[in-house]
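Dear colleague,

As promised, here are the two records you asked about, laid out in our usual form so they can be pasted straight into your sheet.

NAME FIELD: protein one
SEQUENCE, THEN STRUCTURE:
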Amino acid sequence: MRKKWWPLLAGAVMLLLAGIGVWRAALDRPEAVSEEKLNGPALNKAIDRVVAPTHFKGAIAAIKNGQVVTVRTYGYANAQTKQPITGDTLFPIASMEKPMTAALIAQLIREGKLNYTTKLSRFYPAITGADQVTVRELLNHTSGLAMDEVPPASELTTDKAALAYTVHEVANTQDKSFNYTNANFVLLAGIVDQLTGESFNQALKKRILDPLHLTHTYDYRVIPKGSVVAEGYKYDNGRDYVPEELDHKLLSSLLGTGSLYMSIKDMAAFQLALSDGRLLTRPQFKELTEQPDHDGNYSGGFFNLDEDTRLVVGQYDDFPNSFNTVFEAYNTNSAGVLMFANQFTDADTKKMAEEILGHL
């Protein structure tokens, strides 16, 4: 999620795109995991084999043909109390929230309340150059806006405060090349607020959470007492579960872009509903997410790895390094893999997800 981290991801994605033909042809996978399509216990064993050499702690869900086919969990949500991770454990999802914000914007476009070419100046005229920034550019991170991802001096206690902070801190570079910045999606959350007459989180609940019966998704400020919440850790000097606390000041600035806690089961349900007509129709989803008309190949919350596969990655980098979320799926939504981690390791969760996806 942090600005300094995302250009590295974008560069990695571009290198991947450049060599994708050779890579796909070679099927350069670790020997421990084959490309055999699996189901049931065989799939679970294959996932366990991918995880075994690593110090991954968290949850993994696989979806196929409109269903969640398995959820595997590893390690503790709280190592001190030995509370195990389950499919209902709450994780901070970081940038995995962005597709949810994008879906709300797409719904409002469907309702005729704005379109992809609507200018930011309609909603935030005080931002320099807002009359030259479109909704599509916000969704694609090609707006020219830039803002460092660092915690504010004090926690922002309301959505209004988070929006005001972004409007004050964001800068317009006028460079329309791809530049991943959370400010784009905070402003999109503000647009949802203005067009619905509800707070962003109220609109999210009304339009996505309640219709899909997602009962394990909360803004970090309103997590119910008694919820099982994943604590943050890192693997360090041969030790698992070295504590790494998440900075709530940072979370408070990430409205619509990384302030949610969610279970992996809820996220799997959201991803399945995103293009099957419950949230968006397939053409609406395609219009939102398959417009990689720029060097970042990013649109509507997703990186487009190639014509078949899309990716979402979320993490808080130095605030802290512990949490990591990944979703890699085929653009048809015929299969996908979710990974929620609460311990930072050297394991490449994107590659692990890719290996598991090969079995679906």
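NAME FIELD: protein two
SEQUENCE, THEN STRUCTURE:
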Amino acid sequence: MTTPLDLQLGPLRSEITFTLHTQYAHKLWMGRPMIRNGEGKVTQSSIISVPNCFAMLTQIQRAASEDDPYADDYLIQFEESVINYRKEIQKTHQRYCHALRQNVAGGNFY
């Protein structure tokens, strides 16, 4: 039997599950608050959590869908940053694999 709520259109909702296997990954996911010393100077800057980052990107994406030029510009800059970081990670991974192959091939495991 259908109810009036079943017939209403709206956003699709689903549940996403992540399994974080290390404490380091968990800390990155959860973020970090800003830490100040006794004088009020920032000693450690804050790191935004991944869920908060997704929430902000969702708001910016909604603004972009409503023709906000600043939101469009921000999304373009964000995409370019993601592409650049991905390239950096790939280069680092290639260097790491190359160094590992050289050390393992020579019998040097350190």
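A couple of things worth noting about protein two: DSSP finds three helices and two strands in the chain. The first strand starts at residue 35 and ends at 36.

Best,
R.
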